[in-house]
């Protein structure tokens, strides 16, 4: 039996309006145009195409290529891996502009040789009003060393590697939902009462605290790696994160997974946006010759009409509201009022610090190197312990932090 998609009636009206246009074909993504605008728990469901009868046959082949291209693009940017339990089917929706007939098929994006499977596409009302929302603020203070062997100070590559290590720390964090640690197999809304009279009908919101552990694994032993670095990148700030779950009985593990991914995605996306902006303004060949201080784009949320879900975007300080409004229309075909755009957080920064050699420090540096070499010859274990202590003081980590 094929998969069944339950779709809000308003989506059907939207697709019908698109099919009345005189263009021979119209394409788009289902549930999004760009993943950066989707909070945790929301994903690109598939691809749709509205075409004339003459283009219907070629359209299906084009849809299949689009589905796998979109998945490839998304997977390149992810700092997390899908679980084995997750559905890997993506929808290919084809609508005839003449007869209005809807044909839905699915492809398994984990299988490049996947063939089309039939699927049902059914419209229902009031589906978008019953989402469960989770939100948290995560304090970020990430120190990323720049290796001396990295050509031209490859900031983007080093930053991604650093964020990849940080993402594993987020994966291993403890999540308090409304002040409590809950078993992952319990229902998220267990013991909660539904809100009445809310303008966003049916929405349930959970406040989450994220406790990040320094020590990972059961082994008490630690090791340190000494590497020659040419500088460092420091990411600092507090980021607002949000996730949505749509289910009759959502599980805690599903909600936490969605929120973890939003935490990881939102910081990764901002860094990616910043580097894109730097390339546009300074060129890809620019070398980092001095200390640089940059401001990460701030996250903002906008409501979706007729739904309790909010979409997100990112804004640089000098961007006008009109530019963001144009982006929502262009990417999601959704008009947004300026007063409905809510900037969720304060400024977060990126500090790029090169290592500079000072003549007055040279003798002391030489003495330190000589002492370190002597101790290395005498007692390797003591040097490793000292290195761990130095690293701990540099990073100023606590065992638990918000």
Automatic annotation (TrEMBL):
Keywords: Membrane, Transmembrane, Transmembrane helix. It comes from the Eukaryota. It is found in: Membrane. One of its GO terms (biological process) is intracellular protein localization. GO terms for cellular component: endomembrane system; membrane. Its main location: membrane. May play a role in the trafficking of a subset of G-protein coupled receptors. Belongs to the ODR-4 family. This is Protein odr-4 homolog.
């Amino acid at each position: 039996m094929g998969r069944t998609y339950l779709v809000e009636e308003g989506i059907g009206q939207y697709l019908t309006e698109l099919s009345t246009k005189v263009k021979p074909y119209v394409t788009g993504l289902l549930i999004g145009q760009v993943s950066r605008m989707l909070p945790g728990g929301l994903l690109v469901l598939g691809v749709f195409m509205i075409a004339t009868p003459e283009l219907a046959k070629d359209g299906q082949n084009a849809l299949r290529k689009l589905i796998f291209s979109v998945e490839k693009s998304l997977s390149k940017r992810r700092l997390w891996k899908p679980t084995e339990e997750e559905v890997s089917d993506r929808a290919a929706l084809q609508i005839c502009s003449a007869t209005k007939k809807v044909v839905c098929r699915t492809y398994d994006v984990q299988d490049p040789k996947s063939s089309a499977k039939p699927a049902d596409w059914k419209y229902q009302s009031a589906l978008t009003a019953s989402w469960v929302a989770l939100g948290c603020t995560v304090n970020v203070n990430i120190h990323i060393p720049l290796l001396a062997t990295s050509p031209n100070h490859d900031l983007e590559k080093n930053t991604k590697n650093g964020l990849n290590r940080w993402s594993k720390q987020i994966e291993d964090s403890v999540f308090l939902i409304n002040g409590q640690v809950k078993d992952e197999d319990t229902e998220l809304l267990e013991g909660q009462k539904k809100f009445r009279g809310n303008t966003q009908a049916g929405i349930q919101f959970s406040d989450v605290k994220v406790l990040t552990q320094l020590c990972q694994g059961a082994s008490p032993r630690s090791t340190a790696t000494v590497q020659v670095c040419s500088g460092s990148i420091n990411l600092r700030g507090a980021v607002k994160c949000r996730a949505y779950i749509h289910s009759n009985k959502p599980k805690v593990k599903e909600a936490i997974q969605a929120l973890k991914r939003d935490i990881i995605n939102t910081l990764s996306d901002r860094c990616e946006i910043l580097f894109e902006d730097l390339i546009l303004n300074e060129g890809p060949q620019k070398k980092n010759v001095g200390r640089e201080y940059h401001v990460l784009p701030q996250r903002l949320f906008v409501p979706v009409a007729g739904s309790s879900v909010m979409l997100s975007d990112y804004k640089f300080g000098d961007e006008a509201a009109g530019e963001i409004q144009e982006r929502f229309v262009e990417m999601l075909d959704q008009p947004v009022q300026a007063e409905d755009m809510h900037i969720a957080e304060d400024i977060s920064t990126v500090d790029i610090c090169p290592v500079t050699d000072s003549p007055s420090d040279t003798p002391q540096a030489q003495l330190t190197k000589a002492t370190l070499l002597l101790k290395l010859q005498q007692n390797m274990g003591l040097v490793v312990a000292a290195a761990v202590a130095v690293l701990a003081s540099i990073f100023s980590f606590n065992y638990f932090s918000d």
